[in-house]
Amino acid sequence: MIIIQEAIEVRLSHLRDARQLMDLDALVWDEHTAPGPVQWTSREQYLNACPPGSQMIAVMDTRVVGYVGFRTPTGLRSNSHVLEIHIAVHPAYQKQGIGSMLMDAVKELAREQQVRKLRLRVLSHNRRALAFYQKCGFIEEGRLLNEFCIGGKYVDDILMRYLLK
User: Fold this and answer.
1) Which of 64, 75, 132, 153 sits at a 20 to 30 Å CA gap from 51?
2) What is the pLDDT of residue 1?
3) 75 contacts 33 by C-beta, under 8 angstroms
4) Is the pLDDT of residue 100 over 70?
5) Could you tell me the CATH number of the domain that includes residue 22?
């Protein structure tokens, strides 16, 4: 599946995208957006955790400007109808609809694969992300109170879900 809107292509990730995706992780995931920074020690480590095809990516010209990663939460067949997702958009390209495009793309892919539920986790102090997920139709399903201590403050880990029809 490929979506092109205003010079943005949304497609599954390829091997050649690994370096840009690693760089995007280092830029986006910090104490405001994750329990800790995401720092890959090697391309091989990254590709083992995020193999080609495990993300929908947004590309402008040749630059990866965002992605939504997805995977089944467990290896259990009884849990294969669920995808756990995480999304990142380059700060210079936020507030331009790229995140919504990526969410729409992963929802469409999930429907094609007969996935019934998308789930994600977000830190309670990440108000922008919470508002975005709610705008995309996600609702809070659970909350792990004081799950992380970040910058000397305890932060809840919010579990959210989106049920596909």
Assistant:
1) 132
2) 54
3) no
4) yes
5) 3.40.630.30
